[in-house]
Amino acid sequence: MAADSDWHLTRTFNSTSGDVRWDRLGPPGGPPVVLLHGTPFSSYVWRAVARSLAREYDVHVWDMPGYGSSEKAEGQDVSLAAQGRVLGELLAHWQLTEPLVVAHDFGGAVALRAHLLHDARYRALALVDPVALAPWGSPFFRLVGAHADVFERLPPALHGALVREYVSSASSPGLRSDVLDRLVEPWLDDTGQAAFYRQIAQADQRYTDEIQGRYGGIGIPTLVCWGEDDTWIPIAKGHELAALVPGARFEPIAGAGHLVQEDAPAQLTAALLAFLQRHR
């Protein structure tokens, strides 16, 4: 995994929501860290951070079912509820009883659900622009969710243009063309096109409504990082979330949009390292 083009997950776990591709970086005896990506992304967005953390930590990366290089199938359950269960299955498979967890976007909701509803234990939790508080979902997101069957039938060229524009909007300074190509690639063939609209159709705010009232009971060290220029989820939501979690530390990231890992990887890595080193 030396270069961006070489980011390939080499291992497979058969979860209750399909085959999950995953991998491991860093010294096996190091403190374990689990990285969770969001939607419509994959573990690829964590590549720079993961490689930096892997100097000291045993880093676990994975593509959620229905995303990236993991299985995409008709009728697949890729909801937040399913992803939370799959995270619990992976932690058991990896024999991690109390890892450090870092989660972005929908991955934040997955990590929170696994912890609050499925008794997943973490040593500490870092949330990066997470989906956690109502209301969420842009007008575009809600439109697609209500008419996923129609969007699934878009001509490939129109679908590809839509996905590229959507993913591009997650960055504040803009994405390099090769990075954008890699981020949209999993969604462009027939299987990927159906999977793209499937994951939006199954996104439901009730999955965060179920846990939002429990944030005051989170008793582990928590860091909330937020891109100051996030247009997908405004930074005000970050302040609100940090105020709900007892003792949570809030860390704004200047010059970054929603895809903080792409917009400001050095600043994000520094914030995460400082937090993880205090709680390893």
Automatic annotation (TrEMBL):
Coiled coil: none annotated. SUPFAM superfamilies: alpha/beta-Hydrolases (SSF53474). Residues 31-265 form the AB hydrolase-1 domain. It holds the Pfam family Abhydrolase_1. One of its GO terms (molecular function) is hydrolase activity. Keywords: Hydrolase. Transmembrane segments: none annotated. This is Alpha/beta fold hydrolase.
